[in-house]
Amino acid sequence: MSGGGARDAILALARRLAREAGALQRERYEEHHEIDTKSAAVDLVTEVDRACEALVVAAIEKERPGDAILAEEGGGQDRPGAEWRWVIDPLDGTTNYAHSYPRFCVSIGVERAGRSEVGVVYDPLLDELYHAVRGAGAFRNDRPISVTEEPELSRALLATGFAYDRRASEIDNLDHFGDFLKSSRALRRDGSAALDLCYVACGRLDGYWELKLQPWDVAAGSLIVEEAGGRVSDFAGRALAGSAVQILASNGHIHEAMREVLRRSG
Predict the structure, then answer these.
(1) For residue range 143-167, what is the model confidence (pLDDT) as tens digits?
(2) Which of 241, 220, 203, 256 minimizes the C-alpha distance to 120?
(3) Where are the domains of the chain?
């Protein structure tokens, strides 16, 4: 199968699996959940995270057995040298989900030779499916989306989040938060990096920043922002790299102004 044909098949599979995992989340929403912790007392995982990941990973291994898989809860095999690599957050916004707060999603990004090629994010409660393919634009429920044209940080609506180690680490994002609170129109903190990125892509937000994220948090959403006409970088303006990510995503127009705030407060 050609690269383009493979990419189309991967997109179709990612869309299908995102909807199937999202349906499971919707079905189990507001039930009593089995809640465990991982890296910290505030880093939660539920049986629904694990069930969604098992569903997605099993389907990929059946339909594309040679592909690599990097999934948040450890499912699948991250095969060195594989042409295609799936980067999966089966339930982004677990703390929200555990508290029945309605901001969570499924995030599936797919890389080819280390470069993001496909991104799919599904919000099961709003039934909004975001997707992007490199070079082909970004979409919500198959309608094109684009970032805002807002040029002034002072009129921007921004979002951020806080790392799981915030109780122990002095690098806790509070300095950045305070500076952006004074520099922008308003801030939001909704607890799902993937949705925050999609909201930049579709114009609900003008910009977003966060520290200490993992590849599965941003693999799909970053591509969706870029294909919607936005800009994604680390705080220094470089391409994202490494396992612990700092990310700055914007409509492009306010990117340098946001970088300046991060430089001052950092």
Answers:
(1) 999 999 999 999 999 999 997 666 7
(2) 220
(3) 3-144, 153-265
